[in-house]
């Protein structure tokens, strides 16, 4: 797999030589890397760095990897977590997967194996970073920031693009205004929820959805895109 620009990986381990080894190898593969020597630093860095993948050691003093994973997943971000454990015990693996970890590796491991796990997680959880994705009548190209609907390229502002992409990739699911604001505008957005209505109205115009059959409004609940 060719390097994909903009992939961010956070490495969390209390052993400096492991951090250095992984950082050097992953930087050479074209990834953007940050490192954290403990759990609290990892949580702070994750909020600032917004990584696609966190490679997380289980056994750390203070806040262990399980608690870090739990907090990362609770934040609602789409981050993929690969946990590292020095013990090949089923209980550790089950606990990690139960709290939301996406994969695990047992130490010692080969760098090539870690790289393969990273690539698998990227393809599974961030498929749009690999080019055009077809979803019903939509084609979304995240690298070009372009959405095609029924063969026609839509003229979208950056925010319209992010909103439509979010709604299409979550088609069939009711999305509240609060959820949309958090995912599209960001958790620190200080404006009114009515901004969502304004953008949905604009998207309906551009999609020719006069009857609201594509983007449906569910009173008191939010919006849902129906593709069937």
Automatic annotation (TrEMBL):
Keywords: DNA-binding, Phosphoprotein, Transcription, Transcription regulation, Two-component regulatory system. GO terms for biological process: regulation of DNA-templated transcription. SUPFAM superfamilies: CheY-like (SSF52172). InterPro entries: CheY-like_superfamily, OmpR/PhoB-type_DNA-bd, Sig_transdc_resp-reg_receiver, WalR-like, WH-like_DNA-bd_sf. The keyword Phosphoprotein applies. The modification 4-aspartylphosphate is found at residue 57. GO terms for cellular component: cytosol; protein-DNA complex. Residues 130-227 bind DNA. Gene3D superfamilies: 3.40.50.2300, 6.10.250.690, Winged helix-like DNA-binding domain superfamily/Winged helix DNA-binding domain. Residues 130-227 form the OmpR/PhoB-type domain. This is DNA-binding response OmpR family regulator. It comes from Paenibacillus cellulosilyticus.
